[in-house]
Specification:
about 180 residues; alpha+beta; seven-stranded antiparallel β-sheet; two-stranded antiparallel ribbon; about 20% helix; elongated
């Protein structure tokens, strides 16, 4: 997978708790006045007066690369226990350095890097699940110009606002649930 861009959203997803039927109810800007009415519950979630809660969600705009297939732009949505992994991944990307032909050091664009995403088993007192683990593989090579261009073009779409997250669709397809440790 080549990373098209990294993005800290200014949105909070609004969900009905699972024990009350569950489900996505919409989203709010971080500075929306309703967010000020949220209180932390006993599980650390931000609960609104109507009993729904707000979930900090980080979107990573990526280009999925699979052998024999065209690069596919997509969105990786990380929330809850995956927020720390999102922060760590973003710090790793910002810290990555490369050397130019003239020897000077620079930070390569995120869309010029290849990462492998795998899932790993995780658990806490509330259950178990599979979480994401991003690993840096390498910088894209000169022979991967078409992949670099696809990722750069997608990053441009994200920055311009032409690539938008369909939060309702993402909530409906939250996970394939097979837990088979797919790798991308």
């Amino acid at each position: 997978m080549s990373l098209a861009d990294r993005f800290i959203p200014d949105r909070l997803k609004n969900f009905r708790p699972r024990d009350s039927g569950g489900g996505f109810k919409g989203s709010f800007d971080v500075d929306d006045p309703i967010t000020k009415t949220a209180k932390r519950d006993d599980r650390g979630r931000f609960e609104l007066p109507d009993g729904t809660y707000l979930a900090d969600t980080r979107y990573h705009y990526v280009v999925v690369v699979r052998d024999g297939e065209d690069p596919q732009p997509c969105v990786l949505s990380l929330s809850s226990t995956q927020i720390k992994k999102s922060r760590t991944w973003m710090s790793q990307m910002r810290a990555l350095k490369a050397r130019a032909a003239d020897g000077r050091e620079f930070c390569p664009p995120t869309y010029g890097c290849l990462y492998r995403l795998t899932t790993v088993p995780e658990s806490n007192d509330f259950g178990s699940w599979r979480g994401v683990r991003p690993d840096f593989v390498r910088l894209l090579g000169d022979d991967e110009a078409s992949l670099y261009k696809a990722a750069k073009d997608f990053a441009g779409m994200v920055r311009s606002g032409n690539a938008k997250v369909d939060e309702a669709a993402m909530a409906a397809s939250d996970s394939d649930g097979d837990g088979d440790g797919d790798e991308y």
